[in-house]
Amino acid sequence: MERPSAVERSLREAAPHEIFDVLRSAVEHRHRARTVDLLLADYAMTRLQPVGVLPHTSAPVSIHDSAPGRAFGAQEPHCVYDRSASEVTVHLPVSVRGDRLGILSVTLPESDGPAPDVLEDLQGCADALAHEVVVAERDTDLFLRARRVERLTLAAEMQWQLLPGRSCSRPEYSLGAQLEPAYAIFGDSFDWSASADDLYVTVSNGMGEGIDAALLTNLAVNALRNARRAGLSLSDQACLADQAVYGQYKGSRYLSTLLFRFHLPTGHVEIVDAGSPKVWRVRRGVVETIEMEEQMPLGMFEDTEYVPQHFQVEPGDRLLFISDGVYDALSPGGERYSVRALAASINNTRLLPAAQVPRVMLQELLGHRGATPAADDSLVLCLDWHGPSARR
User: Fold this and answer.
1) Are strands 378-385 and 173-180 parallel, antiparallel or unpaired?
2) 154-385 CATH, one of 3.90.79.10, 3.60.40.10, 3.40.50.300, 3.30.470.20
3) What local confidence, expressed as pLDDT, does residue 1 receive?
4) Confidence of residue 333 (pLDDT cuts 50, 70, 90)
5) Percent of residues, the chain, with pLDDT higher than 70
6) pTM here?
7) CATH-assigned architecture of domain 3-147
8) Gene3D superfamilies, per this entry (predicted)?
9) Which position among 72, 150, 233, 263 has the lowest Cβ density within 10 Å, counted as fewest Cβ atoms?
């Protein structure tokens, strides 16, 4: 039986707030590293924030135009050489099952670059650190604080804690999602969960603002999770969540939600459309909306019955789930972000991996909206279907 490496064992035994210090010491000892830094992606996915004891940390770097950002975007190690100092800095992705957390930057005293076995060992250290960061966040605020460029509103704090991550991948699919404004989101949310044969995805657009919107979304998402974990069908999940929201608000507040179940071996999709989030598909270069029978939002009426619909995804398909905060956004001159502009944005990002698409699309939306404060939060979720043939 394979035993965990010495680095993995040391990380598991360390206190949650000390795991990066333990890893830094191990890398310095194993490879004579001159510096070892951990940078985490901020909530808006625009900067990489150094981990340290606030406020005594170094300056953040841009995800878009920096060497660490290049490694983060490509999800591959990237080396930067300094011949005058006879050293090389290796930037390594820190990710867990496709969820991109940040970058581990290691400066080594080697002008010709690290040997393949050294690079492999450093990436193994970055992978081990990624797993431990996810676990440690249950017991320390160190890494959550490091991700913040500015203070989160209380509603945004509640919403981010509700999310499963911002990207994930398996042989059959890749997922990526993003919310804006990242530090002041209201009621938009997403969720996903996978088993051996099924992937469940939900996209929600709650009414209201601030704490009221966050409380509504938290109730609905946890009701959906409770029903899903009880093994209920997709339509029964919607019914249970509908009853939970109606029981609390008696129809004064409700939640527009899309519920999906992807059958991984076949690509068969079951869907319940309980409201307004839209679904777009890119198939063989053609961008189109998927028309569905829209049913009542969750919690609008008592004892609503939900009927599932069905369609099929093909290998190479890209699905995008987009909230009304995107296509209803207004420019400073009052011009609505049109369907044509949205279709163009989808087409412009067709060559990007799913994890990067939501951030780029929301950046284009910000360009349209300008400095005008957001009237509603915006959500983009992208799913690339690779197909059952990709299963291991």
Assistant:
1) antiparallel
2) 3.60.40.10
3) 33
4) low
5) 90
6) 0.90
7) 2-Layer Sandwich (3.30)
8) PPM-type phosphatase domain (3.60.40.10)
9) 150
